[in-house]
Amino acid sequence: MSVAISFKDIVKKYGDTTVIPELSLDIQKGEFFTLLGPSGCGKTTLLRMVAGFNSIEGGNLGFNNKVMNNVPPGKRNIGMVFQNYAIFPHLSVSENVAFGLQNRKVAKGELQRRVEEILDTVQIEVYKDRMPKNLSGGQQQRVALARAIVINPDVLLMDEPLSNLDAQLRVDMRNAIKRIQREVGITTVYVTHDQEEAMAVSDRIAVMKSGIIQQVGTPRDIYQRPANLFVATFIGRTNVIEAKLESGAEGEAVLHIGSSYSLAVPGLQAELKSSGTAAVKISVRPEEFVLAEEGAGLTGTVVNNIFLGLSTHLVVALENGQEVEIIQQSATTEVVDIGRKVTLAILPGTVNVYDAAGERNLNRGLDL
Ligand SMILES: Nc1ncnc2c1ncn2[C@@H]1O[C@H](COP(=O)(O)OP(=O)(O)OP(=O)(O)O)[C@@H](O)[C@H]1O
């Protein structure tokens, strides 16, 4: 049985230090939800609250509306997977997986059936009689995952489960984790500081900074409409450029970037104060720039070109000296020579406009 998890005005203090000030968040039943943020932002602290390993200094943690604050960890029916596998070295793969079921006094026939079924789900049935020391890191992590889900937990918690694996295996394993979670449908809370991993596995992501949630959304929402410049720069790569927002001839909001580029941005008229102008910052991802005809964009000079097969990265120095990155698909373009003057335009509808402090996305609420 999967549950919905709610954090209502949750506070976490260590001694006199508050690391989570009044955080509220709802995770839906069956959802793959990821806590993402830089080191020390409070991801593990929140996860440990769900598990019952951390006290809660304010607010309520709920599973399906039942307040869980003081329910001991052993009574929460939770499966957990950590970075360091934590499987028993003296038990074989199937004995490791059977362990939780034996503890729960599941009858032998049922136990065997469940173990086989889960080993099949995580695709390690061929290793069922092996000892952990004879398994690769990825295989050990599959055992840890099997052991966590075989007990039919209400919630699956995963804390940086792929950190010890090499790059290629991380990609294989995150695909496996996503597939398995979809198959078994358990509400999953996943902690990582790797934004690409978060995007690959999650239904929704909460981006955190200093114990405060900056944005909750689907991977696409967070990538394409970051709530503030912290999120925009933490998720993926982006170019942040100063610009001016002004009223155009028809009363529409127009962005002026550099000395020569103007771009109408629908829906932002209300942001213009009575003076009709506002200093803003814009975020343009490298793939949101395109090379344009002279006079139809920002002018600059190519200072580096890096051919990477699938794509070519150009670094362009703008008139004011700021360097921006642009990514083009290699197949459709030639590599532009270093030293060449180019004009950069922004793909329609992609630009995100922020207040001068970078704290508020003025485009929020616009369709993707
Ligand atoms: N037992 C503790 N006593 C005091 N402070 C703690 C304790 N555990 C964590 N903290 C502090 O709480 C904050 C949040 O830590 P937490 O481990 O939740 O961060 P995190 O986002 O999971 O980081 P990482 O990605 O490095 O694991 C940090 O400033 C950390 O130093």
Automatic annotation (TrEMBL):
> Matching InterPro entries, A to Z?
AAA+_ATPase, ABC_transporter-like_ATP-bd, ABC_transporter-like_CS, ABC_transpr_MalK/UgpC-like, Mo/tungstate-bd_C_term_dom, NA-bd_OB-fold, P-loop_NTPase, Transp-assoc_OB_typ2
Give one GO term, molecular function aspect: ATP binding
Domain of life where this protein originates: Bacteria
Please provide the record's keywords in A-Z order: ATP-binding, Nucleotide-binding, Transport
Keyword Chloroplast on this protein? no
Q: Where is the ABC transporter domain?
A: 5-235
User: What Pfam family does this protein match (any one)?
Assistant: ABC_tran
By what name is this protein known? ATP-binding cassette domain-containing protein
Name the source organism.
Paenibacillus phytohabitans
